């Protein structure tokens, strides 16, 4: 929940603008709280964690002169981010003032950690950042940017276009490391150098994080803008072949709903973290909608429009298209925020691990407790049980009651069939290969049966 006190500051918001922004915020909050798949789960104190990732387009230097972002847009961004416990953000620009303003609007308890800017033509002087609720998520004082060693450098001895950023956090019992990326895009042609560089960047960071997860026995989550085209593309395979697990349902993350650029993949310790749900939040259903075009038309930047002398558009349909497909993306983003919810309360499991079956048969008296100060001796062995007083009946220790969990997830969610897999199965059947396979198997079984009957010894009559 964002803080709304600025809406009452008449130096910032007129009565009309305050009314408009408040109405949009109410609509936005209602959609965030709606049932899945449209909304985002309600946050819990310690039962689960909601981890998000969002590429906030060019946030926020206005170098392409479609902005800057309006005051109301910062409120909307703050409201969406506050639905998560922690969120990775890509394309934060050199000036940190806009992200600091969003953090202020989110209220006390929220904090962020960001990289330095990435220099070079591909880096665009961007930063990557994590925004997190410090009342629930604690920074574990480990942060760093991942660089390629000399033997893994890309062609022409290139490093990552934008350096991946890894930070360690803790929420309750759950210790985890997040690594956010903004992978090089290049070209779409699979034979092009740009596309191959994209694949190589994903391959290396996935392999590196998988190796660390194994060595350190740590929960690693790799998330961000991978520029993955679709679920069966080589870019996706470069991520999953390193052993990273994806949610069973995958969602397109561009506002057109056609690309799977953003992903959240995780490698967690065995039987520790369970998957609950995942989704994408489509803010375009409530914010800057086509129906709201007339409200914003007077403030759209003239330099990107074809206008008559009186300021009206020469082609209303074309102007409306600019509003919906371009200007909107510089107010919010051309990416939708992606999220995953994990169950992280394993307090009961920790306590159950301490139970000893031998004490279910008979009780033992309470231990005698003493301190180092007594008798000037140092404790070198576990405390001993007290001596029984009088005749004592042996009682079995009762099985403990275990409270129902607030959130129950799945250790290893089975991925649902992708469109590509369904197409391959359909083609296998439609092409006759499935029937040919059945005939071959039938002939093999028949041949094996005949061979077995010939080899069997004949019974004497």
TrEMBL record:
SUPFAM superfamilies: DNase I-like
Region annotation (Disordered) ranges: 372-402, 437-461
Gene3D superfamilies, sorted: Endonuclease/exonuclease/phosphatase
Bias (Basic residues): 391-400
CDD domains the record matches: MnuA_DNase1-like (cd10283)
Name the record gives this protein: Endonuclease/exonuclease/phosphatase domain-containing protein
Organism (species): Hyphomonas chukchiensis
